[in-house]
Give the backbone structure.
Amino acid sequence: MPDINEAANSGSPKPEGRNTCEMKITVIGAGYVGLVAACCLAGSGHQVTCVERDDAKLKLLKRGQSPILEKGIDRLLGQGLSAGTLGFSSSLPSHLDADVAMIAVGTPCLLTGSADLSFIYRVVHDVKAAARSPLVLVMKSTVPPGTGARLIERYLKDTPIAYVSNPEFLREGLAIEDWYHPSRIVIGAQTERAAALTSELYAGIDAPVLVTDITSAETIKYAANAFLATKISFINEIANLCEAVGATVDDVASGMGLDPRIGPDFLRAGLGYGGSCFPKDTRALDFAALNHGYDFRLLKSTIEVNTRQRVLAVHKLRQLMGSLEGKEIALLGLAFKPGTDDTREAPSLDIAHLLHEAGARLRVYDPAAMEKCRFLLPTGVTFAGDVYSAAAGANAVVLITEWPQFIAADWATIKETMKEPYVVFDGRNALSQEKMNAVGFRYGGIGRTSGTPTSG
Ligand SMILES: NC(=O)c1ccc[n+]([C@@H]2O[C@H](COP(=O)([O-])OP(=O)(O)OC[C@H]3O[C@@H](n4cnc5c(N)ncnc54)[C@H](O)[C@@H]3O)[C@@H](O)[C@H]2O)c1
């Protein structure tokens, strides 16, 4: 299996050893999941049509421009378009002639916390209406346990459509890498034939394939996200405990992560998780549990701790600099994590609103996500051109997203342009505390106070 750059760079969109069986595939939804799937499947030599109802995105895509920031996507998109294996359309054809229809539309959160499946119902209805010959309907969107069974019962009985739950585990920023090198491929299929056809989509990809029933496949996706979210909230709890007892969470996390049963990933204390998946999927799983009469208390705590971390940031800033009224504060990072322009449920948004309410004057900078935030931030926020102009004249800098260029910035120069009390609040424990102190900053992190316990 070639690596992502080889796959994206090679003149041939069909890396050696890939599919023996080329299929006609319709992908519905050209977002982070659908566009990556469409480009990678076209790169494997399948004939892919991607349906996207958003006109602005569609125009960009037809011109070969990706509406999302994702490493390697532009090249794959260009190659698919010029090879003729990838095309875009605003709607399904009235007669759908495809081997596979793959659903990758959004499943956002309703006010109750439950997943909003209205886009899904619409698409399944449309696919059913357009299908003329046997096809496999592959659900890539994250849908709550039991959804597939309900869709089959409600729409797909007595049709030539076989349903498959094939949850997506990609990480934004590494999505193409993850497509070619997934940790596992989960297939929950209505029929053996549908399972076999779905696994053909991944021919040549070296990863364990786990075939399950549909509801188990749906549950795997939620359980995996809930577990990772819980790991993040757990280390944030430990970080807060570290402050109380006088320990350093970095060392504690290192010591924990060396245990192979625990592992080092998702053990960095900070402002908590955001993004398009963990927040909504934890809430949706909690709701699904409740809906089935089960109170998932651990998951509730995970969610509560994550919310608290955002509020904690504001308390910590007050501890470092007193009242926030009239203070100039620079927020570095708006995307929910580095390497993406996705700002869905990003901690930056909540923190900006909390600081604004506390009377602070805000300037913000992010290398990729400024445009996506333009109408999501409080009024009066200044959008800076880089780290240095964001920080110039500020009383405090808050690191919200650990983009490498922020870590590598010239912090001595930044300090020279700032005003008292020269605060750096490192919301990701990504900067060197010693270095910041040496430069002369009043530094605050999360769980990084080694020394005297706060009480007891
Ligand atoms: N983003 C991730 O990292 C990620 C990872 C794994 C799973 N998922 C899941 O995959 C699903 C999609 O996520 P996403 O981040 O790609 O969402 P997204 O919002 O980026 O993309 C969804 C796209 O579907 C389009 N769409 C909606 N209804 C449509 C219709 N009827 N016809 C054509 N296009 C339509 C929207 O315009 C949008 O462009 C969600 O269920 C999500 O939970 C996301």
User: Anything to note?
Assistant: The longest helix spans residues 214-245. Residues 1-19 have pLDDT under 50 and may be disordered. The domain at 4-212 is CATH 3.40.50.720 (Rossmann fold). The two ends are 57 Å apart (CA to CA).
